[in-house]
Amino acid sequence: MKLSEGIAGKIYAVEDAGLGLSLERRLEALGILPGTKLHVLNKKSHGALIIFVRGTRFAIGQSIAENIQVEEVRE
User: Do 47 and 62 form a contact (C-beta atoms < 8 A)?
Assistant: First the structure.
């Protein structure tokens, strides 16, 4: 599923980020790699997501979240 379809309060594992090379490298620098677990904290009405990854909160725009494939983690 796409990260943009994520539900606030759920935890997901990144499977793939189908973005341009420069943006994909930026996400890697932030620690958002395949296999990384992220927690969706909030989903804004205009499509942006607030996520928690490795101790840090990030805002991800809808256009980026549409291209990140994730799988729900059952814990």
Answer: yes
